[in-house]
Amino acid sequence: MRVGLPRPKSEMVFPGALMQQRILAMPHVxxxxxxxxxxxxxLLVNTASGLVCIGAAITLLGWIQxxxxxxxxxxGHGPMRWTTALSILLLGLAMLLKRNPETGGAAVTxxxxxxxxxxxxxxISMIEYVTGPLPLYEQWNMANIASARPGSIPGRMSVxxxxxxxxxxxxxxxxxxxxxxxxxxxxxxxxLALAAVCGFLYKxxxxxxxxxLDAMSVQTAISLLALYSAAFASRPLREPMLSLxxxxxxxxxxxxxLIGTWALPILIGLMVKLGYQREWYEVPFALGLxxxxxxxxxxxxxxRSDFALTRLTRNKQKLEEVLRKNEKLAVAGRLAASISxxxxxxxxxxxxxxxxxRTSDGLEEQHRYADxxxxxxxxxxxxxxxxxxxxxxxxxxxxxxxxxxLESSVQLLRGKIKSLGLQVVEEYTEPIPQLVCSPGELRxxxxxxxxxxxxxxxxxxxxxxxxxxxxSWTRAGTNVxxxxxxxxxxxxPPEVLARVFEPFYTTKEKTGNGLGLWVxxxxxxxxxxxxxxxxxxxxxxxGTTFAIVLPLIxxxxxxxxx
Length: 562
Description:
Blueprint: H1 15-24, H2 39-64, H3 68-71, H4 82-97, H5 106-131, H6 135-140, H7 159-173, H8 179-201, H9 205-208, H10 218-233, H11 241-244, H12 251-277, H13 283-359, H14 363-392, E1 398-400, H15 402-412, H16 414-420, E2 423-428, E3 435-437, H17 439-456, E4 462-472, E5 478-487, H18 494-497, H19 516-526, E6 530-536, E7 543-551
Parallel strand pairs: 2-4
Antiparallel strand pairs: 1-3, 4-5, 5-7, 6-7
């Protein structure tokens, strides 16, 4: 019987390598963040700002022509002052000019000038509260409207209006300059305008400004509320708009949230007020009824949010488990590619030895060749046993020795190490006591880190695998075992180092899936440890070092596997 030579490496196909090819052939998963504003938001901004500008222009025309029907849009609640109408018109035009974050050049400059004019009018009104009517400014005041409050100054804004106009002007000026300040002022401004609107709905004049400092008109409150909301809608890629209207939230949950937190409390208050006006119950009962209704509504919303969050968490856990299994298959594929080198050498030697046995004449010489072939077969058996142990080892925590795990991890990659012409130095500082870990998962992490180091290290480079007992002062002096894998590669720049543990982030576009380090960090954390990374991209000591830190069992403590 003729013994053939082993198949060339190009023809050898291993199941693990085939699985790795399938996994790496999967589409590269990314989570792109939208960069352009959806058309619905631009439509809302244009509609709200346009209606506010039209209303302010009609009111301003009523003051110019002394026509009460034009100046007083909301009958019975007093007109918007002409200075307020002019300021609202200026701010509405500025909002239209700044409706898109990509707007620049002359449009932004004109918008800034309009906001400056609006805040100037508000400042003049505030000065009038301190010094009285200004002589020059009083000449600009237009004729009184019949519906204006007797004794009030037609050109002077109310204090609430001054505050609302000033904050909105600052917000529009800082819209793309100081986003955090803008968000804070917009939130406070919406609450101010909403308080004034509720004051008119519930006839609580104190919320709309009171009599002493002159009341804000209902048209002013609604206009400010619309412009503040339009400013939020013009930047939907910022918080809180990004979270409130995220696609993951779903249309149903979003509507429940908005209606439950905004519309329903106001409607409940109106219903309670209606019952009190019709003398169905007294004030204490009305307040208690309102409190019970609002608390019940908020409890329902919290339950719905908690239910949705729990469901998302479970789905996330299932997805992470699938990703871990895929990464383990990918690691097995990389190991199979490396082990193929290691198995091919003894198979070639066995083939040659069998040929020598067949052609040899002496029995003693044949026995010597047979012993050599048996030794080569023992090497093949050892390699396959180590490979199978990668999957057969239990993932349950147990007391284990660290050094054998590290030595076997290096041995699994010995073929790839030789083919790349690299030097791997193992430094184990004795004594290293046993610790509680999952040997299979820890070997997976170490093999992954060494494989990454092999990819990053140039030919004739050096990789150090080090383990020692130490103490972690950042964790209250806990006794730990530190496992370090250091390479002499080119290192990682800061922007890569900051994202190295993110899922689906990889610098190896053709051969990487971006899951290795994320899964490794997760497995180490599951065993009570943590990972650290340090990288230098310049100088004689450039390279990257990954450290695995695992806590030790205290002396005398009981241990039992779960």
